[in-house]
Amino acid sequence: MSDLIRFGVSIDKELLEKYDAKIKLENYSNRSNAIADLIREELIKQEWQEDKIITGVVTIVFDHHKRDLVNTLTNIQHDHHDLIISSQHIHLDHDYCFEIVVVKGKPKELKNLCTKLKAAKGVKHANLNLATTGEI
Ligand code: NI
Prior knowledge:
By secondary structure, the chain is of the alpha+beta class. It contains 4 helices and 4 strands. It has a 4-stranded antiparallel sheet, covered by helices on one side. Nickel (II) ion (NI) is lined by residues 64, 89, 91, 97.
């Protein structure tokens, strides 16, 4: 971690009491750590708006009985192999499959990949959860 600095903040008493109660429930050992996480989350959200490389996870739930769907999803992923770090396929039950695709790239590229997977006929759910490379 870089050098620590102290700074003063003026804030509404009631607001701070509510925040302290919240971070206590979340098991933060002190207010400084909670506020640092809050700031970091804001900086990470900013990364998602920019053209920086980030990481994320695409989750997909689909019916593998749907004609050509498995091939379609595989082809889409091969078309974007440069964005995919790893993937895992789970057979949820007789009909449904769950795929976890770990991705790394620019936010727009990752959203585009998720949108293509979601649009494939037979996909019940597809979602992109953005993260960070951890540089912040
Ligand atoms: Ni399966």
